[in-house]
Each structure stands twice: as C-alpha cells, then as structure tokens.
Amino acid sequence: MAATRRKKLVLAVIDAMSPAMLHETVAAGRAPTLAELIKRGAHVDNCVSAFPSVTPICAASITTGQRQDRHGIAAMNWYHRGQGRYVEYGTSFRASQAVGFKRSLTDTIYNMNAEHLSRDVHTVFESLDDDDLRTAATTFLIYRGRHVQQPADDTALTRLAATVFRHPVNGPRELFYADLFASQRTSCRSQFGLPYSRDPHAGCVGAHLVEQDLFDFLLLSLPDNDSHSHRQGPAGQIDSIPVADAAIGRVMDAGGGIDAFLEDHAVIVCSDHAQTLVTDPIDLFAAFDGFNFQPATNPRRGKPGIPDLAVCPNSRAAQIYALGNRRRAAVDGYERVLRETPGVELTMRLTDHPDGEVAIRRQDGELRFSPGGKLVDLQGRRWSVEGDLDVLELSFDGDQVASAAYPDAFGRVWAALRCRTAGDVFASAASGHEFVDWGGSHHVGGGSHGSLHSDDSNASLLWCGTGPESAEARPQWLISDIAELVRGHFGLPSRLSFAPPGASSSD
Ligand SMILES: [Zn+2]
Known about the structure:
There is one protein chain. By secondary structure, the protein is an alpha+beta fold. The protein has 2 domains: 47-277 and 455-501, 3-Layer(aba) Sandwich (Alkaline Phosphatase, subunit A); 280-444, no CATH class. The chain has 17 helices and 25 strands. The strands form 7 sheets. Strands 2-25-11-1-10-5-8-9 form an 8-stranded mixed sheet, sandwiched between helices. A 7-stranded antiparallel sheet has the order 14-15-22-16-17-18-19, sandwiched between helices. Strand 8 (174-177) and strand 9 (181-182) form a beta hairpin. Helix 5 (93-99) crosses helix 6 (101-116), helix 9 packs parallel to helix 11 and helix 11 (237-254) packs across helix 12. The chain starts with 7 loop residues before the first strand and ends in an 18-residue tail after the last helix. It binds zinc ion.
C-alpha cells in the first residue's frame, strides 16, 4: 500500500445543508469553493439521509456505511432499556439539562463511540487505521478509530475540563474535538464547541494538518450551518453555508489554492440531512399526560415501580418505548395516541407477523410491507407491499417501486424499527411540525429535521477527484454510501465499484 500514489482525501460534512440552499448560495456567488468543486466533479441533490433524519444516526451511517439496524445509534434521544434511563445527545441545551448536563455530555463525548456504536461495525477511521493510513478528524460525533487520544491539557480551560472529561478515547491518528482532544498543539480554538466557533476551528485545524502533511484521510466536520438554520430557518443557510465554504477554502489555501490542492487531494462534500421551516410544536408530553411515563431523571419521585413507557422526541420524529407488561397491547394504545396527536403525519411499528412486517399509518390509511417479494426499490432490495399505497405516495414502474416524497422509505423504516436500541412505535411529523424536546425547547420560527419526508431527508453529496465519474452510477445515493466512497478511494473492499484515482500507479 505504501507505494501507491493515491491522492489524499478530505471528506467535508456540512451539517444540515439543504440541497436547495446550496444551489441558492452558489448562485448568489457566496460559496466560491463549493461552486468550483461542483463544476469540476459530480453532484447529487437527493442523497438519502437516515430516518429519523437526525445527526447522531446520520454521523454513524456516514462513518460506518451502515444503518442503525447494524450500527446501533438509534436516535438523538433514546431510552436505554438495559440501564433504565434516557440517553440524550444534546437535542438542545435545556434537553441536556433535563437529563443532567454531565450525563448528556458523557453519553455524547464518550459513550456514543465507546458503548452505543456497535462493535460489529467498523468506522472509516478503523478501516483506514488498520491499513496504516493516516486518519484525522475535527469535532464529529462519531470518531472511533485505533489511536488512543489523551484529553488536552494545554490551556487553563482545557485543564479545567479535563478534571471532568479525563478519560482517553480511541480516535483517528489526529483528533481535534471541541478543544477536549487535540493531538497536535495549534493556535486553533473552538470555545469548547460553541456554535459559530466550530467551522472556523475546523478550517484552522484542517489548514494546520495540510501544512504539516499529517493525514491521508481527513473528516472535516462543519456543524455551524445546522445551528444557524435551527435559529434562522433554512433560508438563513445563505449566511452559514458561506462560513463552511470559507473553512474548506482555508484548508485548500493551505495546500496552495484549489488547483494545487486538487492535484494531490480528492474531496467529498456532503450534508447529513436537510432542514425545513417549523411553524407548530407538538407536545408529546401533553399527549401522553395521564400515562405513567419515565421522567427525564431518576429517581422517579412519587411513582414507585416500573414506568409503562418511555417518550423520546427527536425533533421532527419521535419514538415510544413500551416498558411494562402486556407490551403488544400497550403498543396499540401508544400508536393510537400518536396518531391522534395533531401534527403527527405517519406512525410506524412492527406487526405480529413472524417473519417481520412493518405497518405504516397515515390518517385512515394503512400500508404494510415486509422484506422479500416481487417489488424492487431503487436500492435493488425486494419487498412485498399491501394496503393503501398512498400512505407513502408510492410510484411504480413495472416491478420497481419508489417514492419521491419519502425516499427509500422501506429500507429506512425497516432499519429504524429493527435497531436493537430503538422504540416500539415511531412517528414522523407533518410539514411545519416539530416535537418539543425534554427541555421544553423547539424551533418554531426556525428550522428542524428528523422526519421521513424528502424535505428533511434529501442531502447534498458531491465529489471531485474520486468516486465514479458520474452521479448516474447509482440510481439513488444514500449517506451510507459515503463510507464506501472513502474505502473505495483507498482501495479497501467497498460495496461501490469504481477505479480509485492513482490506483493504476500502485505496485
Ligand atoms: Zn440539527
């Protein structure tokens, strides 16, 4: 491997970048680097996100190439049946506060990678580390690699943080994570990952890594667009995509500008999901008022015994876990409550069918599907489907089945419900609606994501200097294909077949 002259690779993940807003920002002349990459490479506007289309699930899919039925990250907020508690990765500051700030941070910074992410899957960092390639990442939720990284202690603030977050982690060879981990001494600071400081921090670190020639693969994480779009609404991305663009531009400038940089680097840019405007909150806690649901923190004051259910809002998706006895009958009731809650568009659950079957309900309509059968989706997977086809707005071309409104719905819902840490019933919100989180926060007036709908679920994907020549190489791209692009670029086994640039010059 050492003798190959394969280009180095940068994967830039712009959180929540909406394909339409990327176009608008480029058209306005405010994203010159992305415009140039689009011009020189291949570009997809409808790369399908996970469901729920929330960042932790997406980050795990992007880095492992799997869905949550394999990688095990169920949601942003989920119920840990084994530990009898909620896991909250930080839907909002107040949601983290509700479950306990230290616990939420510990779950997000440590447990997500060390415990919640399945050991049965490999991240791209692990795959490349095993091949002695030099891996690097800036603050990304999934960072698991083969290199032990000690907490940073080079400033008074990091020394203070290190009294709480004092454990090492297994990361890529170079890891820069919200000032808590910094494998190289640089002048780059992220104010502990505060919004609006993170993209500049990533750009600063990325430029340092290029200048010092410290990576073969760099995951450049650019999360500020998501925070800005949550506040200002998706239209506000016209001001935050340029910040991400500038960070990518800074990394390229460190390599001598875009022409020189692309001579020895390939680039993939993607988003993990999009965002839509929120006009109305959905209060699940009010909907389940009167039910004995698990509160945010233990001990459960005044309510001894086992709670009957756990309630997990996930922005524009939600899930309910049945905890008590007679679970099957209980699930029927919880699904009915969800269905009758204004703003809920779809409910989803597994049925009693012994071979596995999903029932999706929308108002009075019900559709059931199961794996195997004569219909083929755009991923080439076979399904049998019965019931009201309008529930998912399905279209047919012979035996081929697709839905523009709910892209790759069968595959995504199946993975969501078959995830071992997931709830028993899922809900997807109607346009404009968002579930209020455990801290009482929502984004009415701003943007959000999470639903099965294409508005949230279609992400951007573009590549330059790697991957297949044309986006037409696949009928439908998924965010889980990105890990395969990365592995394929370095000549590792990949589900996607393409000739990685430079591969022919290897020995
Ligand atoms: Zn978000």
